[in-house]
Amino acid sequence: MQILQVELGERSYPIYIGADLLAQPQLLAQHIAGRQVAIVTNETVAPLYLQALETALSGYSLTSVVLPDGEEFKTWEVLQQIFDGLLTARHDRRTTIIALGGGVVGDMAGFAAACYQRGVNFVQIPTTLLSQVDSSVGGKTGINHPLGKNMVGAFYQPQAVLIDTKSLMTLPQRELSAGLAEVIKYGLICDEPFLQWLEANMPALRELDQAALTQAIERSCAAKARIVAADERESGVRATLNLGHTFGHAIETHMGYGVWLHGEAVAAGTVMALEMSTRLGWIEPAERDRAIRLFQAAGLPVVPPKVMTPAHFLEHMAVDKKVLDGQLRLVLLRQMGDAVVTSEYPREILSATLNADYAAMAEQLKN
Ligand code: NAD
Ligand code: GLY
Protein backbone atom coordinates (compact mmCIF):
# COMPACT_ATOMS: atom_id res chain seq x y z
CA MET A 1 0.00 0.00 0.00
CA GLN A 2 1.14 3.55 -0.78
CA ILE A 3 0.22 6.46 1.47
CA LEU A 4 0.28 10.01 0.13
CA GLN A 5 -0.50 13.00 2.29
CA VAL A 6 -2.54 16.08 1.40
CA GLU A 7 -0.79 18.75 3.44
CA LEU A 8 -3.36 21.25 4.68
CA GLY A 9 -2.27 22.00 8.24
CA GLU A 10 -4.80 20.72 10.73
CA ARG A 11 -6.99 19.53 7.85
CA SER A 12 -4.24 17.32 6.37
CA TYR A 13 -5.26 13.78 5.45
CA PRO A 14 -3.88 10.58 3.95
CA ILE A 15 -4.67 8.99 0.61
CA TYR A 16 -4.29 5.21 0.86
CA ILE A 17 -3.70 3.47 -2.48
CA GLY A 18 -3.60 -0.31 -2.87
CA ALA A 19 -5.41 -3.50 -3.77
CA ASP A 20 -8.14 -4.94 -1.49
CA LEU A 21 -8.12 -2.02 0.94
CA LEU A 22 -11.89 -2.29 1.40
CA ALA A 23 -11.30 -5.47 3.35
CA GLN A 24 -9.01 -3.70 5.86
CA PRO A 25 -11.32 -2.21 8.51
CA GLN A 26 -8.45 -0.88 10.65
CA LEU A 27 -7.60 1.65 7.93
CA LEU A 28 -11.07 3.14 8.19
CA ALA A 29 -11.38 2.82 11.96
CA GLN A 30 -8.68 5.40 12.64
CA HIS A 31 -10.72 7.99 10.72
CA ILE A 32 -14.08 7.34 12.37
CA ALA A 33 -14.68 9.40 15.48
CA GLY A 34 -18.01 8.20 16.90
CA ARG A 35 -20.05 5.00 16.79
CA GLN A 36 -22.28 6.03 13.90
CA VAL A 37 -21.42 5.70 10.22
CA ALA A 38 -23.55 6.53 7.18
CA ILE A 39 -22.47 5.00 3.89
CA VAL A 40 -23.66 6.89 0.83
CA THR A 41 -23.52 4.93 -2.40
CA ASN A 42 -25.66 4.33 -5.47
CA GLU A 43 -27.75 1.56 -6.95
CA THR A 44 -24.93 0.36 -9.27
CA VAL A 45 -22.11 0.33 -6.72
CA ALA A 46 -24.19 -1.04 -3.83
CA PRO A 47 -24.56 -4.59 -5.22
CA LEU A 48 -20.82 -4.68 -5.95
CA TYR A 49 -19.17 -3.29 -2.81
CA LEU A 50 -21.65 -2.27 -0.14
CA GLN A 51 -21.75 -5.61 1.61
CA ALA A 52 -17.95 -5.81 1.90
CA LEU A 53 -17.85 -2.33 3.40
CA GLU A 54 -20.74 -3.04 5.77
CA THR A 55 -18.92 -6.18 6.92
CA ALA A 56 -15.71 -4.22 7.49
CA LEU A 57 -17.70 -1.73 9.58
CA SER A 58 -19.90 -4.22 11.40
CA GLY A 59 -18.89 -2.85 14.81
CA TYR A 60 -20.57 0.50 14.10
CA SER A 61 -24.15 1.66 14.06
CA LEU A 62 -24.60 1.74 10.28
CA THR A 63 -27.00 3.47 7.92
CA SER A 64 -26.68 2.96 4.17
CA VAL A 65 -28.22 5.44 1.75
CA VAL A 66 -28.48 4.17 -1.82
CA LEU A 67 -28.99 6.95 -4.37
CA PRO A 68 -30.13 6.63 -7.96
CA ASP A 69 -27.18 6.39 -10.38
CA GLY A 70 -26.31 9.20 -12.76
CA GLU A 71 -25.07 12.74 -13.22
CA GLU A 72 -28.69 13.81 -13.75
CA PHE A 73 -29.35 12.89 -10.09
CA LYS A 74 -26.68 15.24 -8.72
CA THR A 75 -29.47 17.55 -7.54
CA TRP A 76 -31.00 19.19 -4.45
CA GLU A 77 -33.85 16.69 -4.47
CA VAL A 78 -31.57 13.65 -4.38
CA LEU A 79 -29.22 15.31 -1.86
CA GLN A 80 -32.23 15.46 0.43
CA GLN A 81 -32.34 11.64 0.48
CA ILE A 82 -29.02 11.66 2.34
CA PHE A 83 -30.37 14.02 5.01
CA ASP A 84 -33.56 11.91 5.21
CA GLY A 85 -31.45 8.81 5.92
CA LEU A 86 -29.27 10.57 8.50
CA LEU A 87 -32.17 12.11 10.39
CA THR A 88 -34.39 9.05 10.28
CA ALA A 89 -31.60 7.01 11.91
CA ARG A 90 -30.85 9.88 14.33
CA HIS A 91 -27.25 10.47 13.34
CA ASP A 92 -25.56 12.99 15.61
CA ARG A 93 -22.68 15.40 15.01
CA ARG A 94 -20.07 12.72 15.66
CA THR A 95 -21.30 10.62 12.77
CA THR A 96 -18.99 9.84 9.83
CA ILE A 97 -20.28 9.91 6.27
CA ILE A 98 -18.50 7.54 3.89
CA ALA A 99 -18.84 8.08 0.14
CA LEU A 100 -18.65 4.76 -1.70
CA GLY A 101 -18.80 5.33 -5.44
CA GLY A 102 -17.70 7.58 -8.27
CA GLY A 103 -17.44 11.34 -8.43
CA VAL A 104 -21.18 11.92 -8.33
CA VAL A 105 -21.59 10.03 -5.05
CA GLY A 106 -18.39 11.60 -3.67
CA ASP A 107 -19.38 15.17 -4.53
CA MET A 108 -22.89 14.72 -3.10
CA ALA A 109 -21.89 12.82 0.06
CA GLY A 110 -19.17 15.41 0.68
CA PHE A 111 -21.63 18.27 0.31
CA ALA A 112 -24.03 16.48 2.66
CA ALA A 113 -21.16 16.08 5.17
CA ALA A 114 -20.37 19.80 4.89
CA CYS A 115 -24.00 20.73 5.60
CA TYR A 116 -25.29 18.09 8.02
CA GLN A 117 -25.41 19.65 11.49
CA ARG A 118 -22.99 22.25 10.04
CA GLY A 119 -20.32 19.68 9.28
CA VAL A 120 -19.52 16.07 10.16
CA ASN A 121 -16.60 13.72 9.45
CA PHE A 122 -16.28 12.44 5.95
CA VAL A 123 -14.27 9.68 4.24
CA GLN A 124 -13.98 9.09 0.51
CA ILE A 125 -13.86 5.60 -0.98
CA PRO A 126 -13.75 6.37 -4.71
CA THR A 127 -14.54 3.46 -7.03
CA THR A 128 -14.08 4.96 -10.52
CA LEU A 129 -10.74 5.89 -12.04
CA LEU A 130 -11.93 9.49 -12.38
CA SER A 131 -12.84 9.76 -8.73
CA GLN A 132 -9.64 8.01 -7.63
CA VAL A 133 -7.37 10.39 -9.53
CA ASP A 134 -9.31 13.59 -9.11
CA SER A 135 -12.66 14.18 -7.43
CA SER A 136 -12.05 12.37 -4.12
CA VAL A 137 -8.97 14.49 -3.39
CA GLY A 138 -9.09 18.19 -2.63
CA GLY A 139 -12.42 18.79 -0.95
CA LYS A 140 -14.57 20.16 -3.77
CA THR A 141 -18.10 19.00 -3.10
CA GLY A 142 -21.43 19.98 -4.57
CA ILE A 143 -24.34 19.45 -6.91
CA ASN A 144 -25.43 20.69 -10.32
CA HIS A 145 -27.97 23.38 -11.14
CA PRO A 146 -29.97 23.17 -14.38
CA LEU A 147 -28.11 26.32 -15.48
CA GLY A 148 -24.61 25.15 -14.63
CA LYS A 149 -22.41 22.24 -13.52
CA ASN A 150 -21.30 22.08 -9.87
CA MET A 151 -22.69 25.54 -9.24
CA VAL A 152 -23.82 24.85 -5.68
CA GLY A 153 -21.35 23.39 -3.21
CA ALA A 154 -18.64 23.79 -0.59
CA PHE A 155 -14.95 23.22 -0.05
CA TYR A 156 -14.93 20.46 2.55
CA GLN A 157 -11.98 18.16 3.03
CA PRO A 158 -12.36 14.48 3.92
CA GLN A 159 -10.57 12.82 6.86
CA ALA A 160 -9.10 10.23 4.50
CA VAL A 161 -9.30 8.88 0.97
CA LEU A 162 -9.15 5.12 0.54
CA ILE A 163 -8.45 3.94 -3.00
CA ASP A 164 -8.97 0.23 -3.57
CA THR A 165 -7.50 -0.31 -7.04
CA LYS A 166 -9.31 -3.66 -7.35
CA SER A 167 -12.63 -1.83 -7.57
CA LEU A 168 -11.66 -0.76 -11.10
CA MET A 169 -12.05 -4.37 -12.26
CA THR A 170 -15.81 -3.93 -12.52
CA LEU A 171 -15.70 -0.53 -14.19
CA PRO A 172 -17.13 -0.33 -17.74
CA GLN A 173 -14.53 0.54 -20.43
CA ARG A 174 -16.27 3.81 -21.25
CA GLU A 175 -15.94 4.93 -17.60
CA LEU A 176 -12.30 3.86 -17.50
CA SER A 177 -11.62 6.02 -20.55
CA ALA A 178 -13.43 8.94 -18.91
CA GLY A 179 -11.05 8.65 -15.95
CA LEU A 180 -8.06 8.59 -18.28
CA ALA A 181 -9.02 12.09 -19.47
CA GLU A 182 -8.23 13.47 -16.00
CA VAL A 183 -5.04 11.38 -15.81
CA ILE A 184 -3.84 12.85 -19.12
CA LYS A 185 -4.74 16.29 -17.77
CA TYR A 186 -2.01 16.06 -15.10
CA GLY A 187 0.61 15.37 -17.77
CA LEU A 188 -0.56 18.34 -19.80
CA ILE A 189 -0.72 20.85 -16.96
CA CYS A 190 2.30 19.98 -14.83
CA ASP A 191 4.16 16.78 -15.70
CA GLU A 192 5.39 16.41 -19.29
CA PRO A 193 7.41 13.22 -18.54
CA PHE A 194 4.14 11.66 -17.35
CA LEU A 195 2.74 12.22 -20.87
CA GLN A 196 5.57 10.10 -22.25
CA TRP A 197 4.83 7.40 -19.68
CA LEU A 198 1.14 7.50 -20.63
CA GLU A 199 1.95 7.20 -24.32
CA ALA A 200 3.94 4.04 -23.57
CA ASN A 201 1.46 2.58 -21.09
CA MET A 202 -1.97 3.42 -22.52
CA PRO A 203 -2.65 -0.15 -23.78
CA ALA A 204 -1.76 -1.60 -20.34
CA LEU A 205 -4.01 0.92 -18.61
CA ARG A 206 -6.93 0.08 -20.87
CA GLU A 207 -6.36 -3.61 -20.21
CA LEU A 208 -6.68 -2.88 -16.47
CA ASP A 209 -3.09 -3.85 -15.70
CA GLN A 210 -2.96 -3.35 -11.91
CA ALA A 211 0.65 -2.20 -11.79
CA ALA A 212 0.12 0.39 -14.52
CA LEU A 213 -3.14 1.60 -12.99
CA THR A 214 -1.58 1.93 -9.55
CA GLN A 215 1.29 3.96 -10.95
CA ALA A 216 -1.07 6.26 -12.86
CA ILE A 217 -3.24 6.75 -9.78
CA GLU A 218 -0.26 7.49 -7.53
CA ARG A 219 1.27 9.99 -9.93
CA SER A 220 -2.08 11.72 -10.50
CA CYS A 221 -2.92 11.89 -6.78
CA ALA A 222 0.56 13.19 -5.98
CA ALA A 223 0.07 16.01 -8.50
CA LYS A 224 -3.39 16.81 -7.20
CA ALA A 225 -2.26 16.74 -3.56
CA ARG A 226 0.62 19.11 -4.38
CA ILE A 227 -1.64 21.57 -6.18
CA VAL A 228 -4.38 21.48 -3.53
CA ALA A 229 -1.83 21.98 -0.76
CA ALA A 230 -0.54 25.07 -2.57
CA ASP A 231 -3.97 26.56 -3.25
CA GLU A 232 -6.86 24.90 -1.44
CA ARG A 233 -9.51 27.51 -2.33
CA GLU A 234 -8.53 27.98 -5.97
CA SER A 235 -7.24 31.51 -5.87
CA GLY A 236 -4.38 30.61 -8.21
CA VAL A 237 -2.68 27.44 -9.39
CA ARG A 238 -5.59 25.11 -8.53
CA ALA A 239 -7.58 26.58 -11.41
CA THR A 240 -5.13 24.87 -13.80
CA LEU A 241 -6.78 21.57 -12.78
CA ASN A 242 -9.69 22.81 -14.85
CA LEU A 243 -7.87 22.52 -18.17
CA GLY A 244 -10.56 21.75 -20.75
CA HIS A 245 -13.32 22.04 -18.14
CA THR A 246 -14.76 25.40 -19.23
CA PHE A 247 -15.39 24.06 -22.73
CA GLY A 248 -16.22 20.63 -21.25
CA HIS A 249 -18.79 21.87 -18.74
CA ALA A 250 -20.50 23.74 -21.60
CA ILE A 251 -20.77 20.42 -23.45
CA GLU A 252 -22.14 18.58 -20.39
CA THR A 253 -24.69 21.28 -19.61
CA HIS A 254 -25.80 21.73 -23.21
CA MET A 255 -26.12 18.03 -24.02
CA GLY A 256 -27.97 17.27 -20.77
CA TYR A 257 -26.22 15.93 -17.68
CA GLY A 258 -25.12 12.34 -18.16
CA VAL A 259 -25.32 12.27 -21.97
CA TRP A 260 -21.61 13.00 -22.35
CA LEU A 261 -19.58 11.64 -19.42
CA HIS A 262 -17.62 14.27 -17.51
CA GLY A 263 -14.28 12.81 -18.66
CA GLU A 264 -15.46 12.67 -22.28
CA ALA A 265 -16.47 16.32 -22.19
CA VAL A 266 -13.13 17.20 -20.57
CA ALA A 267 -11.26 15.38 -23.36
CA ALA A 268 -13.03 17.25 -26.16
CA GLY A 269 -12.83 20.46 -24.12
CA THR A 270 -9.10 20.02 -23.62
CA VAL A 271 -8.58 19.64 -27.35
CA MET A 272 -10.33 23.02 -27.73
CA ALA A 273 -8.08 24.57 -25.06
CA LEU A 274 -5.03 23.20 -26.85
CA GLU A 275 -6.29 24.48 -30.19
CA MET A 276 -6.59 27.93 -28.60
CA SER A 277 -3.09 27.64 -27.12
CA THR A 278 -1.85 26.76 -30.61
CA ARG A 279 -3.62 29.73 -32.16
CA LEU A 280 -2.01 31.97 -29.56
CA GLY A 281 1.37 30.63 -30.67
CA TRP A 282 2.10 29.11 -27.25
CA ILE A 283 2.31 25.46 -28.30
CA GLU A 284 3.06 23.89 -31.68
CA PRO A 285 0.35 22.24 -33.77
CA ALA A 286 2.39 19.01 -33.43
CA GLU A 287 2.06 19.24 -29.63
CA ARG A 288 -1.71 19.70 -29.86
CA ASP A 289 -1.81 16.70 -32.21
CA ARG A 290 0.25 14.64 -29.76
CA ALA A 291 -2.40 15.25 -27.10
CA ILE A 292 -5.22 14.45 -29.54
CA ARG A 293 -3.54 11.10 -30.34
CA LEU A 294 -3.22 10.32 -26.64
CA PHE A 295 -6.93 11.03 -26.04
CA GLN A 296 -7.76 8.87 -29.05
CA ALA A 297 -5.56 6.07 -27.70
CA ALA A 298 -7.48 6.35 -24.42
CA GLY A 299 -10.77 5.82 -26.29
CA LEU A 300 -11.98 9.38 -25.75
CA PRO A 301 -13.87 11.80 -28.02
CA VAL A 302 -11.78 14.67 -29.36
CA VAL A 303 -14.49 16.47 -31.34
CA PRO A 304 -17.17 18.59 -29.65
CA PRO A 305 -20.80 17.64 -30.39
CA LYS A 306 -21.89 18.66 -33.89
CA VAL A 307 -25.09 20.22 -32.53
CA MET A 308 -23.17 22.83 -30.52
CA THR A 309 -22.58 26.19 -32.17
CA PRO A 310 -20.04 28.81 -30.98
CA ALA A 311 -23.01 30.75 -29.55
CA HIS A 312 -24.01 27.75 -27.44
CA PHE A 313 -20.50 27.51 -26.05
CA LEU A 314 -20.35 31.21 -25.22
CA GLU A 315 -23.73 31.10 -23.50
CA HIS A 316 -22.75 28.19 -21.22
CA MET A 317 -19.22 29.40 -20.63
CA ALA A 318 -20.58 32.64 -19.23
CA VAL A 319 -21.72 30.73 -16.10
CA ASP A 320 -18.32 29.13 -15.47
CA LYS A 321 -16.94 29.47 -11.94
CA LYS A 322 -13.80 31.00 -13.39
CA VAL A 323 -15.75 34.03 -14.58
CA LEU A 324 -14.64 36.97 -12.42
CA ASP A 325 -16.11 40.45 -12.79
CA GLY A 326 -17.69 39.35 -16.07
CA GLN A 327 -14.33 38.24 -17.51
CA LEU A 328 -14.05 34.66 -18.72
CA ARG A 329 -10.76 33.16 -17.59
CA LEU A 330 -9.50 30.12 -19.47
CA VAL A 331 -6.89 27.49 -18.66
CA LEU A 332 -4.46 27.29 -21.55
CA LEU A 333 -1.04 25.73 -22.10
CA ARG A 334 2.03 27.95 -22.27
CA GLN A 335 3.89 24.78 -23.15
CA MET A 336 3.35 21.04 -22.68
CA GLY A 337 3.37 20.45 -18.92
CA ASP A 338 2.84 24.12 -18.08
CA ALA A 339 -0.68 25.55 -17.76
CA VAL A 340 -1.74 29.12 -17.19
CA VAL A 341 -5.07 30.74 -16.26
CA THR A 342 -5.77 33.90 -18.19
CA SER A 343 -8.47 36.30 -19.33
CA GLU A 344 -6.02 38.09 -21.58
CA TYR A 345 -6.53 36.69 -25.04
CA PRO A 346 -7.87 38.32 -28.19
CA ARG A 347 -11.61 37.58 -28.46
CA GLU A 348 -11.13 36.68 -32.12
CA ILE A 349 -8.81 33.83 -31.07
CA LEU A 350 -11.55 32.43 -28.84
CA SER A 351 -14.00 32.83 -31.69
CA ALA A 352 -11.65 31.06 -34.12
CA THR A 353 -11.20 28.27 -31.57
CA LEU A 354 -14.96 27.77 -31.31
CA ASN A 355 -15.22 27.70 -35.11
CA ALA A 356 -12.29 25.33 -35.74
CA ASP A 357 -12.87 22.10 -37.67
CA TYR A 358 -12.13 19.48 -35.00
CA ALA A 359 -13.65 16.65 -37.02
CA ALA A 360 -11.11 17.21 -39.81
CA MET A 361 -8.29 17.39 -37.25
CA ALA A 362 -9.33 14.11 -35.65
CA GLU A 363 -9.81 12.34 -38.97
CA GLN A 364 -6.31 13.27 -40.07
CA LEU A 365 -4.78 11.90 -36.87
CA LYS A 366 -6.73 8.67 -36.68
CA ASN A 367 -4.39 5.67 -36.47
P1 NAD B 1 -19.97 8.64 -11.72
O1 NAD B 1 -19.88 8.91 -10.30
O2 NAD B 1 -21.25 8.91 -12.42
O3 NAD B 1 -19.56 7.12 -11.97
C1 NAD B 1 -19.56 6.61 -13.27
C2 NAD B 1 -20.41 5.32 -13.39
O4 NAD B 1 -19.66 4.23 -12.87
C3 NAD B 1 -21.70 5.36 -12.60
O5 NAD B 1 -22.69 4.68 -13.33
C4 NAD B 1 -21.34 4.58 -11.34
O6 NAD B 1 -22.44 4.03 -10.70
C5 NAD B 1 -20.44 3.52 -11.90
N1 NAD B 1 -19.48 2.92 -11.00
C6 NAD B 1 -18.80 3.54 -9.99
N2 NAD B 1 -17.87 2.71 -9.50
C7 NAD B 1 -17.98 1.55 -10.18
C8 NAD B 1 -17.30 0.31 -10.14
N3 NAD B 1 -16.26 0.13 -9.33
N4 NAD B 1 -17.69 -0.68 -10.98
C9 NAD B 1 -18.71 -0.48 -11.85
N5 NAD B 1 -19.38 0.68 -11.96
C10 NAD B 1 -19.02 1.68 -11.13
O7 NAD B 1 -18.87 9.44 -12.55
P2 NAD B 1 -17.33 9.77 -12.26
O8 NAD B 1 -16.71 9.83 -13.59
O9 NAD B 1 -16.76 8.93 -11.22
O10 NAD B 1 -17.40 11.25 -11.65
C11 NAD B 1 -17.92 12.32 -12.40
C12 NAD B 1 -18.39 13.37 -11.45
O11 NAD B 1 -17.29 13.84 -10.68
C13 NAD B 1 -18.98 14.58 -12.13
O12 NAD B 1 -20.16 14.96 -11.46
C14 NAD B 1 -17.91 15.64 -11.97
O13 NAD B 1 -18.44 16.93 -11.93
C15 NAD B 1 -17.31 15.26 -10.65
N6 NAD B 1 -15.94 15.73 -10.47
C16 NAD B 1 -15.66 16.35 -9.30
C17 NAD B 1 -14.38 16.77 -9.05
C18 NAD B 1 -14.04 17.38 -7.72
O14 NAD B 1 -12.94 17.90 -7.57
N7 NAD B 1 -14.91 17.29 -6.75
C19 NAD B 1 -13.36 16.56 -9.98
C20 NAD B 1 -13.69 15.92 -11.18
C21 NAD B 1 -14.99 15.49 -11.40
N1 GLY C 1 -11.14 18.99 -10.32
C1 GLY C 1 -10.68 20.31 -10.12
C2 GLY C 1 -10.26 20.59 -8.74
O1 GLY C 1 -10.34 19.76 -7.86
O2 GLY C 1 -9.88 21.69 -8.45
User: What radius of gyration results from the CA coordinates?
Assistant: 20 Å
Low-confidence blocks of residues: none
Helix content: 40-55%
Can you name the CATH architecture of the largest domain? Up-down Bundle
Ligands, ions, cofactors = nicotinamide-adenine-dinucleotide, glycine
Strand order of the largest sheet: 1-2-9-6-5-3-4
For the sheet with most strands, the description reads: 7 strands, mixed
Taken from the alpha-carbon principal axes, the silhouette is globular
Overall mean pLDDT stands at: 96
Strand content: 15-25%
Total beta-strand segments? 13
Assigned CATH class of the largest domain: Mainly Alpha
Order of helices and strands: EEHEHEHEHEHEEEHHHHHHHEEEEHH
Say what the CATH topology of the largest domain is. Dehydroquinate synthase-like, alpha domain
Catalytic activity: 7-phospho-2-dehydro-3-deoxy-D-arabino-heptonate = 3-dehydroquinate + phosphate
Binding site for NAD(+): 69-74, 103-107, 127-128, 140, 149
GO biological process, one term: chorismate biosynthetic process
Domain 3-dehydroquinate synthase C-terminal: 179-323
Give a short overview:
Pfam families: DHQ_synthase, DHQS_C. The protein has 367 residues and is α/β, with parallel strands linked by helices.
Can you tell me about this structure?
The structure is a single chain. The protein has 367 residues and is α/β, with parallel strands linked by helices. The chain is 46% helix and 19% strand. It folds into 2 domains: 2-170, Rossmann fold, CATH 3.40.50.1970; 173-366, Dehydroquinate synthase-like - alpha domain (Dehydroquinate synthase-like, alpha domain, Up-down Bundle). The chain contains 14 helices and 13 strands. The strands form 4 sheets. Strands 1-2-9-6-5-3-4 form a 7-stranded mixed β-sheet, with helices on both faces. It starts with a strand and ends with a helix. The structure holds nicotinamide-adenine-dinucleotide and glycine (GLY). Nicotinamide-adenine-dinucleotide binds next to helix 4, helix 5, helix 6 and helix 10.
